[in-house]
Amino acid sequence: SFFVGVEPTKGWGPFKIYDRKKANTIAVEAVQRLGITRITDGDRLVGGLSGGERQSLAIARAVHFGARVLILDEPTAALGVKQATHVLRIVNEAKRRGLAVIFITHQVMHAMAVGDHFAVLIRGAIAADFRKGQKSREEITDLMAGGETMATLEAEIEGYRSAHSGKSAIPA
After folding, report:
1. Is 157 among the domain residues?
2. CA torsion, points 115, 119, 124, 127, in degrees to nearest 10?
3. What's the structural domain count of the chain?
4. Is 19 contained in some domain?
5. Which of 50, 55, 112, 152 has the fewest CB atoms lying closer than 10 Å?
6. How far apart are CA 34 and CA 9, in angstroms?
7. pLDDT per residue over 95-131, tens digit each?
8. What is the C-alpha to C-alpha distance for residues 93 and 101, in angstroms, rounded to an integer?
9. What residues make up the domain containing 158?
C-alpha cells in the first residue's frame, strides 16, 4: 500500500477510521504526477501494476513523503526493456524535482541514461570516478568488466596461445 504506517484517517480520538477515499485520491494523484497515467483506481493500485510500475510507485511514494535522496539498488534488473525505460523516465523525473538519486546498476546504458556523476566499484573499491561525458560507453563497460585487469588477462591468454600454438589446451 502507498500509505503503510501513515494511513490517512477521518474521525476523532478513538473513533478514527481509515479514510480510503482520501488515500486513493492522494495515491493516484502522486503516481500520475510521476507519469503512471493508466492508474485511475486507488483500490487496484498495486495489484494491477507491472514490475516497472511497482518500482515507479515506490519512487512516487518516496517523493510524496518528502524524501530528499533515493537509493535504488538494481531497480531495472528484473524488468523488460519497456518497463526499464519507464523506471528510468521516473528516475529522471525525480531528479528534475530536485531529489538526489544514487542508482546502483550493472547496466551501463541504464546508468548513462540517468547518471550525472559515476563511480565504478570493483570489490568495494573505487576504480573510477567521473562525470557524464568524460568517458564513452565502451570505456565504462571496460571499467565495469575489470578494466586493466581484463586487458592484462587477455594479453596473458594470447601470450599463452602464441607460446603453445598447436599444442594449446585453450581453443583458438
Report:
1. yes
2. 140
3. 1
4. no
5. 152
6. 25
7. 888 889 999 998 888 999 999 999 988 778 888 899 9
8. 11
9. 116-172
pTM for this prediction:
0.63
pLDDT 10s digits, 125-146: 888 899 999 988 888 888 877 7
- Backbone angle region of 123, left / alpha / beta, with phi > 0 → left and psi within -120 to 50 → alpha: left
Residue among 56, 130, 131, 132 nearest 94 (CA): 56
In a domain, residue 57? The reply is: no
How far is 62 from 45, CA to CA, in rounded Å?
16
Q: Which residues contact 89 (CB under 8 A, 6 or more apart)?
A: 35
Q: How far apart are CA 164 and CA 170, in angstroms?
A: 9
Grid cell in block for residue 58: 515506490
Q: Does residue 136 form part of some domain?
A: yes
Backbone φ and ψ of 44, nearest 5° = -105, 15
Which three cell numbers, joined as nine digits, stand for 30? 502522486
List all residues 6 or more positions away from 161 whose beta carbon is below 8 Å from its beta carbon.
168, 170, 172
- 108: which 3 cell numbers? 551501463
